Amino acid sequence: MKVGFVGLGSMGHAMAGRLLKGGHEVVVTNRTRAKADDLLAQGAVFAETPAEVARQVEIVFSMLFDDASTEEVVFGEHGIASGLAPGAIHACSSTLSLAQARRLKDGHAERGQVYVSAAVLGRPPAAQAGELFVIAAGQEDALSRLRPLFGCFGQRVFEMGQDPLQANLAKLSLNFMIFSTIEQMAEVFAINEKAGTDPHRIFDLMTGSFYNAPVHRNYGKLMVDHEYDNPGAPVTLGLKDVEMFLKAGGEQGVPLPYASIVRDRFLGAISAGDADRDFVVLLERVRQDGGLK
Amino acid sequence: MKVGFVGLGSMGHAMAGRLLKGGHEVVVTNRTRAKADDLLAQGAVFAETPAEVARQVEIVFSMLFDDASTEEVVFGEHGIASGLAPGAIHACSSTLSLAQARRLKDGHAERGQVYVSAAVLGRPPAAQAGELFVIAAGQEDALSRLRPLFGCFGQRVFEMGQDPLQANLAKLSLNFMIFSTIEQMAEVFAINEKAGTDPHRIFDLMTGSFYNAPVHRNYGKLMVDHEYDNPGAPVTLGLKDVEMFLKAGGEQGVPLPYASIVRDRFLGAISAGDADRDFVVLLERVRQDGGLK
Amino acid sequence: MKVGFVGLGSMGHAMAGRLLKGGHEVVVTNRTRAKADDLLAQGAVFAETPAEVARQVEIVFSMLFDDASTEEVVFGEHGIASGLAPGAIHACSSTLSLAQARRLKDGHAERGQVYVSAAVLGRPPAAQAGELFVIAAGQEDALSRLRPLFGCFGQRVFEMGQDPLQANLAKLSLNFMIFSTIEQMAEVFAINEKAGTDPHRIFDLMTGSFYNAPVHRNYGKLMVDHEYDNPGAPVTLGLKDVEMFLKAGGEQGVPLPYASIVRDRFLGAISAGDADRDFVVLLERVRQDGGLK
Amino acid sequence: MKVGFVGLGSMGHAMAGRLLKGGHEVVVTNRTRAKADDLLAQGAVFAETPAEVARQVEIVFSMLFDDASTEEVVFGEHGIASGLAPGAIHACSSTLSLAQARRLKDGHAERGQVYVSAAVLGRPPAAQAGELFVIAAGQEDALSRLRPLFGCFGQRVFEMGQDPLQANLAKLSLNFMIFSTIEQMAEVFAINEKAGTDPHRIFDLMTGSFYNAPVHRNYGKLMVDHEYDNPGAPVTLGLKDVEMFLKAGGEQGVPLPYASIVRDRFLGAISAGDADRDFVVLLERVRQDGGLK
C-alpha cells in the first residue's frame, strides 16, 4: 500500500522505517530534510510539504511534537488537510490534548476526510523493533484499513472505540499513570529513607514482589539512583502531559486529585530549578517536604 | 529446630504448617483450639497459652490480626513476653503500627528478649505453597538464626535493616501502594468511562502494556468487574492500614498526600454504606464524583 | 474630564453612571444600545463602536464579561485598540486571565497605548453607591491620571504595582479566597451536621466570634440556608475563575493545593447537575462525601 | 455560688479570677501551688488535689493542656471524678479530642456525675477582661446552672446541643478555620509575591475589603511580617489540633481535604526545623514550593 508519513523525529522516523520494511511505499516529509536521508535510501519518496504527501496517498500518518506543531502541519498552509482527498485517512500518533484532537476530528470531517487517533506507547528502540503498543480509535472502516499498517510498528493494537478522542484520552491516561506511580513510589522511598532504610532495598522489595511492572522497574530505578540528568523526558514535558489530562478531567467533569498533586510537584520542581531534568526528579520534592536535604 | 507459633488464623496456620513440613518441631497455640487440629495431626504440639509456647522454644513466631490482639498476646497475662527466655526471639509477622512495633521492641528489650519484625506479603494460598515474600528487620544474629525458617514459608526474604521497625514500615508502605494504585486506576477508569470507553478496554490496555504488575491485574480486574461483594479485604481494613501509614508519616515528618486522598476515599466509602465491601469499591467514590451513577 | 466606557452590563452601567455623577463627560457604547438609554438621559454620549469611543477620549474604561469578549472589544474590528491615540489609556475592569491581561498589555504597548488594570471588588449595588474596591496596577503616570476617576465609583483604591498584571492576579486571588473560604466552611458545617449539630449554630458561632468577615457572613448564610437556586454567581463562573487562578499558579510556578481542591468540587458539582446553581452548592459535595443525603 | 477550678495556667488562672470577681467562692488547685497565690489573696481557697476541690463543690471547672493531662486530673488518683458527688457537674474547658471527650462523658456518667463541655475561644487577655467566647454543650439542666458562671468570663455563650462532644467538635472546627485561613492566605501571598507584589499590599487589600475578620487581620499580619519567632502557638500545637480534627473526621466519616493539606504543611514545617516557631510559619512551606527562598 502507498502511505504517507509526516514528522520524522526519532519516533516518526522509526515508525516510517517499519512501514517501509513491511513492504509499503512510503511518502515522507519533514521540516529538516536530512532526517529522511536513510529512509529515502531504503526506498521512501520525499515530498516537499505535508500537502504534497497527502495528495499522493489515501492514508497519511503523522507524528508531531505537540498540539501546536500538529495544528500547523495539518491545517497550516500546505498542510495535510489541504492535500488529503475526501474519504482519505489521517492517522495521527501525536500525544494531543482533547481540544486539539477535536479540532482534527472536526476539521477533517468538514473536508470529508477521516481522522483516526493512533497514539503509541513505547520509545524509539521499541518502534524500531516493531514493538510499540498502538492505542487506536476511529471509524470502524478506517480502522480496518489501518490494522495491517499498525502491525508494522506495533506488537499489539488496543482499540478504544469509534470516536478518535477515546484514544487520545487513553494515551493521556497512561502517561498519567507513569507520573502517579512516580509520586506513589516517591512517598514510599522518602518515608523509608527518613526511617533509615536504603531506598534501593525498598526498590528491590517492590520489584521483587507485586510491584514489578515496567513502570515500577524503569522509573523506580532512576529514582533510587537519583538519575536526573540524562532525561528520557524532562519535567516540562511531564507538566504539559498532566495538564492535558487535568484539562480532559475538566471537560469530562471528573475530578482527578492524584493528577493535581502531580501537577503541583512538577510546578515545585520547575521553581526549584529542575525544569529540564528527568521528571522522576519529582522525588526531590517529596524528599524536601520530608526534610531530606 | 523447635519453634513456637502463636495465632492460627488462615495465614498463621499455613505458615506453621510450612514450618512443620520443613522438618521443625512446632509448638502452637490459638484462642480457638480446633484450628490447630490438623497441625497436631501432623506432629505439632499444643500449648495452653502463648507463655507456655514461649517457655518451650528459643524462637516464637506470631501472626495476629492487629495491634490490640498482638499487644494482648505478647504482653497480656500468659503472654509471650512472660514466657520467653532472655536471648530468645519473638518474630512477629502481624501488620502493625509503628507505635505498636516500638512497644514490642522496647518491651522485649526490657526483658532481654529480641523482637524481630517478619512481615509477610501474600495470601494464605501463597503461604501454603511456601511462596510468601518476607520483609524482615532486626539484629543481625537473630536474622541469621531465622533465615532457614523464613525459607519454609517464603520464596524470598527482603531484609530492611537492623531496626525491626524498618520492616513494619516497609510493610505499611507496600500496602499503601495497593491503595494508591487503586485510586490511580480509578481516576483512569472513571474519566475514560465518562468519555464513552468501556473500562475493560482500558484494563486490557494497562495490563497488556506497561502496567501489568499483579497489583494492576488483580485489583484492576475486580474494579472493572465491580466485584465488591466478595471482599478479599474490606474498606475498614484498608482504612486501618492507610491510617497507620499516615501516622508513620506523622512520626517521620513526611507528608504523604496520596495517602491522605486514599483515606478520604475510604471515609467516603464508609459513609456511603460500603464499609464491609472490598476496598476496590473506592472506584465508586471516583465514579460518583464524576457523575457516573 | 472626557472619558469613555465600553460595556454596560450591570457593573459597567453603574460605574459609568458614577462617572457621570462625578461631573465627567462620558462617551459610552454597548452591544445592546438600549442599556445606555438612561445614561444618555443623564448626559452621556453614545458612540457606535468601541473604536468610536476611543477616538474621542484619552481614557477609556471597559468592563466586559470575560477574556473572549474583552479580546473582541479591544482587538476586534472597530475595537478600542484601533481607535485609541498613542499615549491614551485603556483601564480595564474585567476579571481576566493573566494570559489575556498580557495580550492587552502587549497589544496596547505595540500601538503606543497604555493598559491599566483596574479590577473591582463588589456587586452592582456597591458600584451604584460608589463603594467598590478598586485594585489597580499600571504605570505611575497613568495611575495618577486615573485616581480621581476611580474615586467616582470606588470607596478605596488598592495599588499593586507598575505591571498591570499584578492587579489582575490580585483580583483572581481574592476570588479564590471566596471559594476556599466556602470549602473551609463546608468541611466545618458537614462534620458538625454529621455529629448532630445544626449548621446554623456553627454559623452563629463563626460569625459571632472571629470569623465574621463579609466572606463568612454572606456565603456562610447562603450555605446553611441551602440557598442554591437564586445564584449570585453560578458554579460555572466559579470554575472559570479558579481555573484562571490555577493557570496563574502554573505560570508563576506556585502550587496552589487549596485551589485544586475547589476546582475538583466544582467539577463534581457540575457532574451532579448543579452547574447553574450558586457556587456555594459546593457544600453539597462535601455533604455527599460525608454521607449526608 | 461555690465552684471549683482545676488548672491555673494563664487561661485557667484568668477564668478563675473572673469567677472570683463575679462574687463566687472559688476552690482552686494546681500542680504548681504558687500560681494560685494571687487568687488566694483575692479570696480563693486552695485544695491539695482535684478530688479535694471536687468534694467541696457541685460545679468544678477544669482547664488543662491536653488529653493526657485532663485524663490524669480527672480519672487519676485524687482526680476530679473520685471527689465529685453524684449529680455534680464537671465543666471542662480544655481543647480535647473527641475520644478523650467521650471518656469524660462516659466516665462521669458511670459515677452519676455530669460532664459539660465548655470550650473557650480567645486568649488570656480576653479571659481577664471577661470577653471569651464560650462554646458549650451538655444536658440542659446542667447548662442552665452554668450560664451565670459562663457570663463571668465569657462575652457570649454559644450552645451546640445536649451532647457535650458537640462543643468539643465545634472548638476543633474553629481551630481548623485558623489553620485553613492561614493556608489560604499563604497561597495568595506566595503567588503574588512571586509575581512581584509586596504581600503587605495584598494584606491591605484583603483586610481593607471583604477579608477583614480577626482571623485574617491577626494571622495575616504575622505572615506578611514573617513574625515566626515569638509564637502565640507553635507548629507542634497546630499539628496536634489539626490531627484531632482529622481524627474526628474519621470517626464521623467526613473527608476533610483542607485539613489534610494543613497537616502536611505542618509536618513539612517540622521537618524543616520549624517545630517551635509560630504556626503561621506554614507560609514558608508554600513559599518554598513556589521557589521563593
From TrEMBL, chains A, B, C, D:
PANTHER family assigned: CYTOKINE-LIKE NUCLEAR FACTOR N-PAC (PTHR43580:SF2), OXIDOREDUCTASE GLYR1-RELATED (PTHR43580)
GO biological process: organic acid catabolic process
Entry-linked SUPFAM superfamilies: 6-phosphogluconate dehydrogenase C-terminal domain-like, NAD(P)-binding Rossmann-fold domains
Name listed for the protein in its UniProt record: 3-hydroxyisobutyrate dehydrogenase
Active-site residue numbers: 171
Keywords: NAD, Oxidoreductase
One Pfam family matching this protein: NAD_binding_11
3-hydroxyisobutyrate dehydrogenase-like NAD-binding domain sequence ranges: 167-283
Domain 6-phosphogluconate dehydrogenase NADP-binding per the UniProt entry, residue ranges: 2-161
Record-linked InterPro entries: 3-OH-isobutyrate_DH-rel_CS (IPR002204), 6-PGluconate_DH-like_C_sf (IPR008927), 6PGD_dom2 (IPR013328), 6PGDH_NADP-bd (IPR006115), HIBADH-like_NADP-bd (IPR029154), HIBADH-related (IPR015815), HIBADH-related_NP60_sf (IPR051265), NAD(P)-bd_dom_sf (IPR036291)
Alphabetized GO MF terms: NAD binding; NADP binding; oxidoreductase activity
